[in-house]
UniProtKB/TrEMBL annotation:
Native organism: Penstemon davidsonii
Keywords: Metal-binding, Methyltransferase, Transferase, Zinc
Protein name: Hcy-binding domain-containing protein
Cofactors demanded by this protein: Zn(2+)
Matches recorded under PROSITE patterns: HCY
Sequence ranges assigned to domain Hcy-binding in this UniProt record: 14-309
Source species, domain of life: Eukaryota
Amino acid sequence: MGRENGIDHEKKNVLNNLMENAGGCAVVDGGFATQLEKHGASINDPLWSALCLIKNPDLIKRATIPGFLSRGLSMEEAESLLKKSVKIAFEARDEFWASVKKRSGHNYNRALVAGSIGSYGAYLADGSEYSGNYGVNVSLEKLKDFHRRRLQVLVEAGPDLLAFETIPNKLEAQACVELLDEEKVEISSWICFSSVDGETAPSGETFEECINLINKSDKVCAVGINCAPPHFVVSLIQRFKESTDKAIVVYPNSGEIWDGIAKKWLPSKCFDDENFELFATLWRDVGANLIGGCCRTTPSTIQLISQVLKDGS
């Protein structure tokens, strides 16, 4: 098997192969916690949707080892739950794929399982993933220490991809890039930022300077935006395309605003499924290679995105 800069070609190309098989633009899943709520899960908790790994694992996405430890679990239990999240995702994927293969003439691509690595701010559960303000005491080394063991455990679990999500500042992006090198990770990854103004990262730093440091990494295969209002997406894709040759991934929320302090969604103008269906082709046409949804989007949202992209490919 060929290798390039320490990465197996097969592992490096898994994401590129998915995009190529999908005609250049593949579909990402939707708002997982939103669907858990519809099935009766309560996620108004610092652990967010990861609470279901403890209370209802059959109903799962983002978890942190410190988050589990803060709930009184041991390190061994916390790491086991993190691995369990990947195992459950694989089981669901493989069960679906086994049923699909029995159908003649199906046009599905085998789904990939991404290990989600949320931002330090998401762990704090204080809304700082939408401000990028971690305070003067949070250094590059502290961020790497925070993410390191979770990254190691997820890599051991063996997902197809690693998804660093809702990154609000350049410092945390740098921590992610450096960790991938330090840990000699051979799994393809993407790094997605959030944005509250459609122009810059939540910290106020330009995306150009954030992306420039990511461009130096051969371990990061795609960059993009998640959990930002969908009406920002077109201009952000164009901005990202000017700064990188990497694939562009976008999975915005519905446009509703999450109050990280009050722990509730605020009334606001939002996209319904028909808007996502309309804009998905525009996002693809201006340069997005992976398109999905984040908070408050549903399976029906993703179904419409998938169908309209297939119809237009």
